[in-house]
Amino acid sequence: MHATLEQMTVWSLVSDASLLVKLVMLILLGASLASWYLIVQRSLLLGRSERLLKDFQKRFRQQGDLAQLYREGAEQADADAALEQIFRAGYQEFAHLHRQHGVAPEAVIDGVERSLLVAISEQEERLEKGLPFLATVGSVSPYIGLFGTVWGIMNSFIGLSQVQQATLSTVAPGIAEALIATAIGLFAAIPAVIAYNRFAARVASLSTRFYAFGNELQTRLHRKLQAPSSLAQAA
């Protein structure tokens, strides 16, 4: 029995909805809660990553001895410090190849570049985790809500076919409860779409800074490799 116009509320409409419409609402509610959890979690992670990136970039440019900077990082490594993790991967490969005799400077820099690309890809993957889910919620939720709405309206018309005279009090509750599914679908989709676009832009910005840092690190390491030969030529 549908709620009458006098006692029609959102909760009464939800409780009076058909089983399938309730299932649709439950799926959308779960998707909304999961997306809000990801929104908060990703927002905190990206904010922390951006702060740590600025801090390490400042230390990197102020520190003339990269070996000392590498040793300091070993004592206070942070999983969220993406730029520091990239630096450690690149410098570790540099130290490994530089210790080997007979390795040309170009081969050392090539090895560092490959190591940096792998490290950057790993950090990009870590930062992008959860974004596909937000994109899926944003694109699919309205259609799931629309399915619940169509099903609810169809049931309402089937019920009206069994009534001699259709009035507003008999039509309104069924249509209203069906439209709630669309409203919940939009409620789940809109924040997910906004968050996905915002996070994707922030991840792209961080990724650009990762590659710029990789080029800066390679330049400093290349100068370090050329320093002994330059001194020998001057002598």
Please write out the topology.
Elements: H1 10-16, H2 19-62, H3 66-75, H4 82-99, H5 105-128, H6 131-160, H7 168-234
Question: What distinguishing features does this structure have?
Answer:
mainly alpha; rod-shaped
What does this structure look like?
The chain has 235 residues and is an all-alpha fold. The protein has one domain. Helix content is 85%, strand content 0%. The protein has 7 helices and no strands. It has helices at residues 10-16, 19-62, 66-75, 82-99, 105-128, 131-160, 168-234. α1 packs across α7 (168-234) and α6 packs antiparallel against α7. The chain starts with 9 loop residues before the first helix and ends with a helix.
What is the N-to-C succession of helices and strands?
A: HHHHHHH
User: How many domains make up the coordinates?
Assistant: 1
Main pleated sheet: none
Q: How many helices in DSSP terms?
A: 7
Average pLDDT level: 83
Q: Give the class from helix and strand content and strand pairing.
A: mainly alpha
